[in-house]
Hints:
Layout: E1 5-11, H1 19-24, E2 27-34, E3 37-45, H2 46-56, E4 62-66, E5 69-80, E6 87-95, E7 101-110, H3 116-119, E8 123-126, E9 130-135, E10 144-147, E11 157-159, E12 170-171, E13 181-186, H4 188-199, H5 207-214
Parallel strand pairs: 1-4, 2-6, 7-10
Antiparallel strand pairs: 1-3, 2-3, 4-5, 5-6, 7-9, 8-13, 9-12, 11-13
Amino acid sequence: MGDKINVTLQKRELQGKKVARLRKEGIVPGIVYGHGLEPVLVQAEYGALEKVVREAGKHSPVHVTIDSKKRITLIKDIDRNPVKMRIRHVAFHAVKANEVVHAEVPIRLAGEGESEAEKAGLIVLQAIEAIEIKAKPADLPEVLEVSITELTTPEDKILLSDIVLPAGVEFADVEQDLELVIANVYEPAALEAANDAAAGDAPSDDPSQVEAEQGGDTPQDTQAEEKRPGGKLQDEPKQSNVDAGK
Length: 246
């Protein structure tokens, strides 16, 4: 929740391979779409958009302005260069203020270093980094926090049921397993042994083998780059009808 995150977007004319020119000029292409909204091709200066992505992630509402019109959105997809990790494209999903939306929110362990377990030399490791929730945009929390200060022995753990959800927030899955383990306590020696065992099963580092198994990179300026502007459950537009590439 917290302060509003705002960004002004300009309508974009360039499509396909021509957007490479925008990126060279420090401009990031994007799209805004949503139920009942004709998808709009947009663009913004890299620095401004990078700041918004960093602050909002995929869980905080972003108030976008396009031609003086304001909309509430959630960032649904962020495409990055696989090597430099620079943002290449951002998809915004427009939502209504009174509409319940789904978002994946990070989980933060509070009180790290203060538990009796850690003071005794044990190690607390987080097993689940985020969980999907549902709420109205204004009620979406920036993070779900759970205290680990009560952890004492290797048998202790933090469960999803230990997280207290804010008012107006629910887990997205109505059958969510509340016994899901969020964090475990380990003996250092046991953890080291587990890591050594896992290392023995690690995949080959041979680049040619990895490429053969996973395929090479998708060229940055091909149509495939903008084929996934949003989530399957969020009225995702058919990109072939929206934006032939970037």
